[in-house]
Design brief:
Length: 79
């Protein structure tokens, strides 16, 4: 990201273009955040998720707490 920022700064954009770019990036970020918001589930969707989770558990498709902790730590460090 720093390299991208350095490249943009090397373009010697005027303040109008810098403001336009900043607003465009903020608009895109806000739209992406809205997509990430959790929508409420219907009761049927909740039951289906539970059913699939129980199937995964019965089939051994699980993660140990150590694996989850490691993945979360890696994710946090990547932010």
């Amino acid at each position: 990201m720093d390299a991208l920022y350095d490249f943009l700064k090397s373009l010697s954009l005027g303040s109008d273009n810098e403001r336009w770019l900043a607003e465009k990036l903020l608009d895109d970020a806000e739209a992406h955040e809205k997509e990430q918001c959790l929508a409420p589930y219907t009761v049927e969707e909740i039951y289906e998720r539970i059913r699939r989770s129980e199937e995964d558990f019965a089939a051994g498709r699980t993660y140990s707490s150590e694996e989850v902790h490691r993945e979360m730590q890696e994710y946090i460090e990547s932010l």
